Amino acid sequence: MTAGTPPTSAYRRLSDHLDRNSDGYGPLRGTLGTARMGMIWLAANLVVTTLLTGTLFVPGISWPLAVAMIVLGTLIGGSVLVLVGNMGTRTGLATMSLTKGSFGLRGSFLPVAANVITLMGWSWVQAMLAGVTVNFLVEQATGFSSPVLFSVLCQLLVVCLAIFGHTGIARVEPWLALVILAFMAYIFTTAFLAYSPADIAAIPQDTAAGWTGVAALDVVIATAISWTVLSAEFNRLARTQSAGMIGSGIGYMLSTVLAMTLGATAIGYVVLDGGEAVPFDPTVIVASFGAPLAVVIFLSVMATNTMVVYGMVASVVNMVPSRRVTFLPTAIVLGVISILGSTWLALLNQFTAFLTVIGALFIPVFAIMIVDYYVVRSRHYGRDILRASGGEYWYTGGVNVAAVLVWLLGAGASLLLTYVVPSPIGATIPTFVLSALLYFAWAAASRRISRDGHPRVHLLDLPEQQGVRADR
C-alpha cells in the first residue's frame, strides 16, 4: 500500500482475491491428460447420492434387472454428458456459457437460472445426507439427535469451503476417491461373502414400491443429465478431445455403475440380514457396515458439495461479461439460501421427483445444444459468443425464441410421459429425441444449417473480431 492510499477493508481484499482467482469469463485452454480427467470424473461421482440412488430400486425390481438398467442408463446418459463435455474441450467454455450459442446471449439466462435451481437442490440434498449421517453417529454415542442442526452445520462448512478452499478440495478429491473405492470393495466383499449374487437376485420383488425397469432407467439417465450441467466445466480442462471424451466417459460410467450397483447390493444385503429396505437413507447401510462408512460418506459429501456450490456461484458470476456481479457477494447470498434450504429434510422423501424435474428441465436443453453445435453449426462457435450484445448469437433481442419454445415443449412432454401418459420406453429418451428433432426441423426450415467451412478450432485460436469484447 502506498503512502496516502486509504486502507481497504478485509471484505474488499477478500473479494478482490476471489475475483482474481475464480474462473474468469471466457474460454480456458486445458492442460490435463486422459488419466487425470478420468480421476476427476471418478472422484466427482463417487458420492453418497449416487450410491443411495441404487438403494431406490431393490426390492422394487429384481437385483439383476436393477444392475442391467444401471448399466444401460449410464451408457445412454453418459453419452450426452460426453458430447456436451466435448463442446467445452473444443471451445474452452463452461456449460452454461455454451447455451449462448443456441439460446442467444440473453436467452441463455433461462437455462442458467434453471441450473442454479438444480445445483441448489443438489446442495440441499447432499447437506441433508451428511447431516443425517453425522446425527446418526452422534445419537449412537450420546443420545442427542437433531438432524436439522447437523445438516445446517454441514452446509455452513460447505459454503466456507466453497469460498476459501475449493481449489484445495479439487486437488484432494481424486485421492478421496481411492479411499471410497477401497471401502466400496470392502462392502462388496462383505455382502457377497455373506450372501451369493444368486441369493440377492432371489429377493422377492415388492410391487407395492411402484418401481419398474423403465422407471429405474429414467432415474439413471436423469442422474447423468444432472451431472451434465457441469460437464463442460470439467472437460474444458482437458488437453485434447480424446483426453476429455475417454477420461470423462470411463470415469463417469465406471463410478456410476459401481456406486449404484453397490447401493442396490447393500440394500439387498440389509433385506437378507433381516433389516428393512428403507430407500435413500444413509443410516440404514451405516448401521450394517459400520462407522467408517459414515466417515467416508461425510468426507465425500463435503468434497463434492463444495464443488457444487462453487459451480453454482460461478454460473451466476459468469452469466454476463461484466464485473457488476462479483464472486463474494454472490457466494454469500447463494450460501445463505443453501444453508436455509438444508433444513428442508422432507426433500429427501421427494428425491425421485427431484430427479424427474431435472430431467424435464435439462434433457431438452442438452438435446438443443448438441444439435445446434454438432449439426446446425457444424462443430463451430465463433468469438461472437463472448459478446455482451449483437453479433451472430443475438437472434431476436438476444433470445432464440425457437430454442425456448422447443425447451418448453420438451419439458412439457417429459412431465406428460412421466405422470399422465406413461411411455413404455420411459420419458427421458422420447423427450431427448423429440427436442432434437423439433430443433433440427426449425433450423432446416429457417435455413440455418451451416455449410461454411469454418475453422474447427479452440476459441482462443480464433482471431479477435472487431466489436468483440469482454467488457471487463
UniProtKB/TrEMBL annotation:
Regarding protein family, the annotation reads: Belongs to the purine-cytosine permease (2.A.39) family.
| Name under which the protein is recorded | Purine-cytosine transporter
Provenance organism: Arthrobacter agilis
| GO MF annotations in UniProt | cytosine transmembrane transporter activity
Topology within the bilayer:
Multi-pass membrane protein
Tell me, in one coarse class, where this protein mainly resides: membrane
Task: List where in the cell it is found.
Answer: Membrane
Instruction: Give UniProt keywords alphabetically.
Output: Membrane, Transmembrane, Transmembrane helix
User: Sorted alphabetically, which Pfam families does this protein's record hold?
Assistant: Transp_cyt_pur
